[in-house]
């Protein structure tokens, strides 16, 4: 009967170790995958040189299960990373296209940043222009804390993305309008 308790305790410890490894980093899972692959597929003579031939034979099912699970997790990490980076590239392309296709009101709003030489402005979250620029990836809400100017108009700090600031500084014609530039001396 004591051997059953020992096996349960070992299984419990291995489960906790596995969960700990998974939570830490994909690198640890990849290391487990490579180690299990070596134990499974390396020639026995090579395993004998490093003293792992007995481990590979005695614990083949555990090594195989480790290989399978860590392989699936590694593939999942790779797919997730690829998808996230592809999405970021597509989002950046869409944002750059949105910067080239600004409306008159959007250009006037962005002129406020340029003329005041700042990347941050306090803007109304209820404004369709502000929301459009935010959804287009040109602005982002810098803080979740804001003020209520009027009952239905919360005002938050909005920032330009760095690449937008660089673009409008290098190419101010992107935000120029036929009636001229925003005048900071006149009220908004």
Describe this protein's structure.
The chain is of the alpha+beta class and 188 residues long. It has two domains: 2-93, no CATH class; 102-175, no CATH class. It is 65% helix and 13% strand. The protein contains eight helices and three strands. Strands 1-3-2 form a three-stranded antiparallel β-sheet. It starts with a helix and ends in an 18-residue tail after the last helix. The mean pLDDT is 84.
Average per-residue pLDDT, rounded, comes to: 84
Number of E strands: 3
Percent strand: 5-15%
As an assembly, this protein is single chain
Radius of gyration computed on alpha carbons: 29 Å
- Specify the overall morphology: elongated
Which sequence of strands runs across the widest sheet? 1-3-2
Largest sheet: 3 strands, antiparallel
Overall number of domains: 2
Q: Assign a percent range to the helix content.
A: 55-70%
Query: Distance between termini?
Result: 82 Å
Count of helical stretches? 8
Ranges where pLDDT stays below 50 over 5 or more residues in a row are none
Order of helices and strands: HHHHHHEHEEH
Please state the structural category. alpha+beta
Task: Please sum up the structure shown.
Helices cover 65% and strands 13% of the residues. With 188 residues, the chain is an alpha+beta fold.
Characteristics of this structure?
single chain; alpha+beta; 2 domains; 3 strands; 65% helix
What's the SSE blueprint?
Elements: H1 2-24, H2 26-41, H3 44-49, H4 53-58, H5 60-100, H6 104-116, E1 120-124, H7 128-135, E2 139-150, E3 153-160, H8 162-170
Antiparallel strand pairs: 1-3, 2-3
Helix pairs in contact: 1-2, 2-5
